[in-house]
């Protein structure tokens, strides 16, 4: 599960199932995408790429799934 928080209100703005089969270690917005594209990495060795709709901030689709043979613990974007 990935959750995005509004730190000013203390409320979750968005939560969605990441599609990972193990713990998500990191989620980051891709640079220069106006916070519409996010990547996640997890203990299952996969990297998932998500696109969001700007008008209602809903998950559109998982467009990339890359299987790595080791645990991925951070993303350098």
From TrEMBL:
Coiled coil: none annotated. It comes from Dendrobium catenatum. The keyword Repeat applies. GO terms for cellular component: Cul4-RING E3 ubiquitin ligase complex; cytoplasm. Keywords: Repeat, WD repeat. It comes from the Eukaryota. The keyword Repeat applies. This is Uncharacterized protein.
């Amino acid at each position: 599960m990935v959750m995005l928080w509004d730190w000013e209100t203390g409320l979750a703005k968005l939560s969605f199932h990441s599609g990972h089969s193990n713990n998500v270690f990191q989620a980051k917005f891709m640079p220069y995408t106006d916070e519409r594209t996010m990547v996640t990495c997890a203990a299952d060795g996969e990297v998932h790429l998500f696109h969001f709709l700007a008008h209602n901030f809903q998950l559109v689709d998982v467009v990339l799934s890359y299987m790595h043979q080791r645990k991925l613990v951070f993303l350098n974007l």
